[in-house]
Amino acid sequence: GYLDYLIIDLPPGTGDEILDILQLIPDVHIVIVTTPQEVALMDSRKTIKMSLIMNRDVIGIIENMSGYICPECGYKIDLFGKGGGEKAAKDFNVPLLGQIPLDPNIRVTGDSGLPFIIQYPDSPAAKALSESVKKIKEILEK
User: Tens digits of per-residue pLDDT, 12-30?
Assistant: First the structure.
């Protein structure tokens, strides 16, 4: 049937999977999901460059694992560095769609088959994820 959206989770970098998608789906819109570490950003940058060379629409970057927020005191620890997604977004002139903090309950709900965002809607990660999805939808509906 008809799809409103098809989301494809691909491995990082510029391997066959991403190349096939870029060649087979001309009207693709790309959201880069990265983590703050420089090594992850290197792969993300390669994917963005290849997408732009092929004239594909990179609608933005999401920084996943963007720190850990203590549920007891609210203190944020940047376990994997800070600001990598924001810098890459500026470098490529694309929006930073969100920064999703680590939350152990993502794994717990994933293992149980329950949607994290429904089980923990008030958590910082769920709020950041919801905001990212909202931004993506707004961009796609323009």
Answer: 777 888 889 888 988 889 9
Structure tokens at 74: 């609210």
Domain count along the chain: 1
SS3 7: coil
Classify residue 36: in a domain, yes or no: yes
Task: Tell me whether residue 116 is in a domain.
Answer: no
| pTM for this prediction | 0.90
φ, ψ of residue 49 to 5 degrees: the values are -60, -45
**Number of Cα atoms under 13 Å in the Cβ half of residue 39:** 1
In a domain, 109, yes or no: no
| Most confident by average pLDDT, 21-30, 66-75, 119-128 | 119-128
d(CA 54, CA 10) in angstroms, rounded, equals: 17
- CATH number of the domain encompassing residue 60: 3.40.50.300
